[in-house]
Write a structure and sequence with these properties.
4-stranded parallel sheet; alpha/beta; 14% strand; globular; two-stranded parallel sheet
Length: 169
């Protein structure tokens, strides 16, 4: 659906749409995206899979492990699905939810202020929902990943985001 909407936008911008249709080489970072573009726009797509250096040995958990910690990272916007993430957590039975913590971090995007405020305000109502704000320091991000037990990618459009790869390392 996301790519279909983008194709409609490109159709309105004829230069971009023409360029995509006639490109000799195109690159995608996921099989899902590459297959869609190849099927719907241009078959000349090559997949370059995301890669991130494995630095997991450089970090060890600092938090007390008496709770299960979930973590989602990314810009706080509708496309990223943080509302889905929060709703899923809040729909857990209270006894289970009390044994867990929901962590998330990310930046507010221009045009997404209302969505951002709604997510942060909802999380503020629960002691075990921790919003870390925007984290720019990579070491702090990697430490937070190490401190958590489950990395969640609640996206409406991404098939393999960078945070999933960072969590996998």
């Amino acid at each position: 659906d996301h790519f279909f909407r983008k194709a409609i936008v490109f159709q309105k911008e004829y230069k971009n749409f023409y360029s995509i249709l006639n490109a000799k080489y195109m690159v995608a970072v996921s099989d899902y995206c590459g297959e869609w573009v190849s099927k719907n726009l241009n078959p000349n797509v090559f997949i370059i899979n995301n890669f991130i250096e494995d630095i997991a040995k450089s970090y060890s958990p600092n938090m007390d492990k008496n709770k299960i910690r979930f973590l989602a990272l990314g810009s706080i916007e509708y496309r990223k699905g943080f509302d889905i993430y929060l709703d899923a957590f809040l729909s857990l039975p209270k006894g289970i939810r009390d044994c867990c913590e929901l962590h998330f971090a990310g930046r507010e995007l221009v045009g997404q202020e209302e969505y951002y405020k709604k997510i942060v305000q909802l999380s503020d109502k629960y002691d075990n929902c921790i919003f870390h704000g925007e984290i720019l320091d990579r070491d702090k991000i990697y430490q937070l990943i190490s401190d958590c037990d489950v990395i969640v990618v609640p996206s409406r459009s991404e098939s393999c985001s960078r945070v999933a790869l960072e969590g996998a390392m």
